[in-house]
Each structure stands twice: as C-alpha cells, then as structure tokens.
Design brief:
With 644 residues, the protein is of the alpha/beta class. It is built from 20 helices and 21 strands.
C-alpha cells in the first residue's frame, strides 16, 4: 500500500547519503541554462548564492569529459501538497487538526553560469540529470571564476553572500569605456571612488568632471587624515559667485581653473551669453567686435567695442590699441578714456538665491528678443540666419566691414551689449589657458569641481579641457592612458531630441574613437535613459546598481548585450552598495558588495534627522533669548537700575 504522506527532501536525503556541502538534488526538467533543485529548511541556500554541479558530462570534439558547472540561485519557493492555494481558512484548519503540521516542499531555481576551462568561462552544451547532487560552491572555485589579473586588478569588493571571495576587475576591460549606472542613493559615487582610487594606485592618469563636489575629498579619509595617495590628487575649482558646500580647507586646498576669454571664438561667446544660433544680427555684431580686439582682451572690452559699433564708430581698417579695441577710442576705453564697469551699466547683476546671476536682467523680454532677429531695410539677416548685402560686399564669415557698419549690424550690437554684460558678470574669466600638462601628469587624479557653476560655463569648461586633451592625443600622442570621468553624463551628452552643448559632440567622438588614442571614458549617471544612446552603447563594461525606473532599465537593456531579462529583474532588489558588473571587466556577470574605499565621500547625503535636531535646538535657544529680551523690555526703569 502506498504511503499517503508526501515525502520531504529530508526523507530523500535519509535514503540517499548526501555529500558534504550539498544542499539538495536536481529535479524536474533540466536545461543547459537552468535547473530546479529540492532542498530542506536546514540546507536551503539564500537567493543569489552560488552552487556547483560536479562532474557534469560535456562533449568535447569526439568524446566526453566531466566539468564542474557553476550556477546561481535565482529563487527559493516553499509550498505544501496538502495545503493548496485554493483552500479556504476552514479547510486548512481541518487538515492541520487531523494531520498536524505537514512537511513543506522547498524548491530552488538556479541559472547556469558555466564552467571554467582554465582560461575562459564557457556555457555547457550538456545538462545534468535529475537526481544530480547540488553543492554549495566552495570559495576557491569562485575565486577562479571571478578573479582576473590578480597582480594588477581593480579590487571592487567581494561577492554578495561571500565576503571572503574578492572580485578583481580586469583593467583591460576599460579600453571599451565604462558606464556606472545607479539611481540616487544606491552608492554610485562611493563605487566610483573605489574604482578611481584603484586606478590611481595602478598608475592611471584620471580626469574627473565633478558637478556636485562628490570627489573633492579624496585627499582625506573619514577622520580627515591624509590618504596614502593624497599627494597625487589635485582639486581644481572654477570660480563662482556662490559658496561651496565644502570649503577649500575641508578638502585640503584647491587650485583655481579659469577660462581665457580672448581664446574663445565668437560663437562660443554667443553660446555662453545665450544668443541663439538664429539671432544672426547679434552674432554678426559679436563677430565684428571681436575682429577689432587683439591681445588678451576681456568681456568688459568686448562690451565697450560693441557700444562703439552700436554708435556707428567702428570702421573696417581701424588700428587697434594695446589693450584691444580701436585705437581711436583709446584701445578698449570708452569715449572718456575709461573702461566701463558693471557699476556704470544700468543692469541689475546681483546673484539670486541659487548664487547665479539672473539671466532675465540681461536677456530682456520676448519682444526685444524678436526685435533682435527682425529683418531691416538694408539687407540684414532674418530670423533664419540668412545674409544679405551689407556694406560694400556680401559676406558669410563675420569679417569686419569694408565701410561703415550697416543699420542691421548697429542694431545687433546695441542689443548684444546686455548679453555680453551677463557674460562679464561671470567670475570664471582669467588670463591662463587650461593647464593640460598638469592634468596629464603621470599617476595623477585631477578633479575639476564644477559645483555651482553656470550650466553653459560648465559645458564650455568640459569642452575646452577635452579639446586640449583630444588635440594632444591625436596630434602628439599620449605617453600614458587617460581616464575621463563624466559625472551626471546625461547633462553633458544628452539623448533624445536634446542636442546638448558644445561638449556633447566631442564626447561622442571620444566614445567612438578614443580607445585608439588612449582616451577612455567613465560615464556616471542615474538616468541612463537620458544619455545619448550611441554613446552609452559604446561603454562595453557596466557597473549597475539599484535601478527601479522602467525607462532606465530599458535603456540599459538596449545599451548592453550582456544584460538579460533575469538580471534586469534583479536590479530593483539590490541593496545600497551592491552592484552587478558586466562586460570585459569580468569573465562573467558578477554581483558584488562594493567595499574598500579609503577616501572620504563628498557625495554623502545630508543627515536629515541630525539637521532637524540642530534646527530645533537653535529655535529653542532663540525662543529663550527672545522671551528674556521681552521680559526685560517690560520691566520699569527702576528694576533695570537695581539689576545693574
């Protein structure tokens, strides 16, 4: 007579001796890429644990050999044959009263990773048989799978669930660029810091564009002590009107980095000023004014030159003075011999609450913007940027006129003044070019802090720096590889219908061709769906952390051939500091708990509870002071005398 009671896996294990380290047996349908196994409450491995199937037959050429197949647990489920999901409360209660506690059936699902042939990880072409013993993978086997280039690897942390199995990334995997993707608060900047520290100590030259001051503390640890690599870390700060969240003293000192205004071409000046490409009259006026300036001129001198152009005082063949500007007006001086300052101009340039100068004070109303691109009666440019006859000849390149300026050029210069005054108010201008030699020093990590900088200025700083780097790489060659880190990459090289600033085109070119010249990108973003798709797809390696947005998950799927649906399903379940590493950095996709950063993290979140507690204490103190002041004010004069 058959046994009416269901048999638990423990009964099976009692009948068949189970090996040391075994957690169960293969059951059901077995595929080459996945299998199920039955286990017990005591033996059940956690989700994401690594398993091994020993001695699985594998066909090689004309024969067979046995291999050890590594797998990973994707799901653990528990059910009971007697207690079906369709039962109601009374039915379940009756069964439990009659039969007592029924033994559970614990089933695990595992995905096959592959077997290691001594050099590479290969996907098996055969499958284990039902009843095959499933063992917990030992640490030494996992080290062979997940440790690459032990002598020069990048130590990112340890396997999830295996703190004694380090994960070393292969630096050669960076030659196809790297993308670090995670939603806010998942540990992205901490992870990038770990990678940068390792790259620096391996001899890398690293250039970081940091819009949020996330990497300005890498010279110090959490206790404000110097890190072992402090002398090889430099922080460059772009001057701003605002106050930095972290002072120069906090970060151990910073060097200023400025832009040389006279080194900009007129179109770059117009872009910063907010003069659109279809505002032809204004752009022509700026081009013409720049033609009359020589030497190391400033925005103030350009304003003065535009004023003279607006007054009709500039002609084609004028001499230039020593400061730039026409010699007739004193080389950049106004009609009274002085360079006009912002104080002399009827414009409010005070910073707003965000620390930036309000653009409306300079740009005017929509009506004045339309006037700036209107067609005049003398063949001026229309709103589409068309060109007519001006002066004695038609032109297409913005050269100085051969005679007196046309009315359209005069009108454009008059309207362009307020835009250039906005440019003049920005504190970023200096008289030195980008210190490219310092940035490219051997074993040097340079962070360019762009926090609080006007968006257009930040884009121009990235573009100018990358232009110098790319010119050096393509013309003279680089003596060492350079790693360029772009934080908030979705703002620098946006996708969709957004064209991005001037830096976007150069970033796209470096993504496509940089590896030929030793320039490698590290794109860091929390919104991969907003990064230019072709640029993101050029990143052959990815470090992906917690990501719950479906659009961003879809962008990751489109950008990487290594991302499977099962892996995408795992991303929302990752904890803070856990990541999936894909691509040539590793032999196979691996889940890592990131650890080992030695420098302090500039991107750490504000501790809201502590800040609120401090605010409450301050409010109570102010309240006590206010009450005492009020009480004292109500006392008669005689009481004051007695107290004194």
């Amino acid at each position: 007579m058959s046994d009416p009671q269901p048999r638990d896996a423990s009964a099976v294990s009692a009948a068949v001796p189970i090996a040391d380290g075994a957690v169960g047996y293969v059951i059901g349908e077995v595929r080459t890429d996945a299998f199920q196994f039955v286990t017990t409450t005591e033996l059940a491995p956690p989700r994401l644990e690594y398993l091994v199937l020993r001695d699985v037959p594998e066909r090689v050429d004309d024969g067979f050999r046995t291999v050890d197949v590594l797998a990973q647990v994707t799901r653990i489920s528990v059910h009971n044959r007697l207690l079906a999901s369709g039962m109601n409360y009374n039915e379940v209660e009756a069964i439990l009263r009659r039969l007592g506690a029924a033994p559970p059936v614990i089933v695990g699902d595992a995905k096959v990773i592959g077997y290691y042939d001594g050099r590479d990880v290969r996907v098996p072409r055969g499958a284990a048989m039902p009843g095959h013993v499933v063992e917990r993978a030992p640490d030494d086997l996992l080290r062979r799978f997940f440790t690459r280039n032990v002598k020069s690897g990048i130590s990112l942390g340890a396997l999830i669930n295996r703190p004694h199995v380090p994960v070393l990334l292969d630096p050669d995997g960076l030659n196809r660029h790297l993308a670090v993707i995670a939603q806010t608060g998942a540990g992205k900047s901490y992870t990038v810091g770990v990678v940068l520290e390792q790259l620096l100590e391996l001899g890398g030259t690293v250039m970081v564009f940091d819009p949020n001051s996330d990497y300005v503390l890498m010279r110090r640890d959490a206790q404000r002590r110097a890190t072992p690599f402090a002398e090889r870390v430099a922080v460059y700060r772009v001057p701003t009107d605002g106050v930095h969240r972290l002072s120069d003293d906090d970060i151990g000192g910073a060097r200023p980095i400025t832009l040389q205004f006279s080194a900009l071409d007129p179109d770059e000046i117009c872009d910063i000023a907010g003069i659109g490409e279809n505002w032809a009259n204004l752009r022509d006026a700026v081009r013409t004014a720049c033609k009359h300036l020589t030497g190391d001129y400033t925005p103030r001198q350009l304003v003065a030159e535009l004023r003279r152009l607006a007054a009709g005082a500039v002609e084609a063949d004028v001499d230039v003075g020593p400061l730039g500007g026409s010699a007739a007006s004193g080389g950049g001086l106004d009609d009274w011999g002085f360079i006009p300052s912002l104080d002399d101009l009827d414009v409010d340039v005070s910073p707003d609450a965000s620390g930036s100068v309000a653009a409306d004070a300079f740009f005017g109303t929509d009506e004045t913007r339309r006037d700036a691109v209107s067609t005049d009666d003398h063949g001026g440019s229309d709103a589409r940027g068309g060109r007519g006859r001006r002066g004695k000849r038609a032109r297409d390149d913005g050269d100085a006129f051969e005679g007196a300026p046309t009315p359209s050029l005069i009108a454009g210069a008059e309207k362009a003044v307020k835009y250039i005054k906005y440019v003049e108010s920005l504190p970023v201008w200096g008289f030195e070019s980008i210190p490219i030699d310092d940035l490219l020093g051997p074993m040097q990590l340079s962070t360019i802090d762009l926090a609080g900088v006007d968006r257009r200025v930040a884009d121009l700083m990235v573009m100018k720096t990358l232009t110098e780097l790319w010119r050096r790489a393509t013309r003279r060659g680089l003596v060492r590889p350079v790693f360029v880190v772009l934080e908030e990459a979705h703002n620098i090289v946006p996708g969709g219908n957004k064209e991005g600033g001037r830096a976007a085109g150069l970033v796209k070119r470096i993504a496509a061709e940089g590896r030929k010249f030793g320039v490698f990108l590290v794109l860091v973003t929390q919104r991969p769906g907003k990064v230019h798709a072709d640029t993101l797809s050029q990143c052959g390696s990815q470090i992906i952390m917690r990501l719950t947005n479906p659009d961003d998950q879809s962008a990751v799927r489109r950008a990487s051939e290594s991302v499977s649906e099962a892996l995408l399903a795992d991303l929302p379940g990752l904890n803070v500091g856990e990541a999936v590493v894909l691509g040539p950095l590793v032999r196979v996709p691996v889940m890592v708990r990131v650890a080992g950063r030695r420098s302090a993290e500039g991107g750490a979140d504000i501790k809201v509870a502590e800040a609120l507690e401090a605010a409450r204490a301050a409010a109570l103190t102010e309240g006590v002071i206010a009450r005492r002041a009020a009480e004292r004010a109500d006392r008669p004069r005689e009481a004051w005398r007695e107290e004194i």
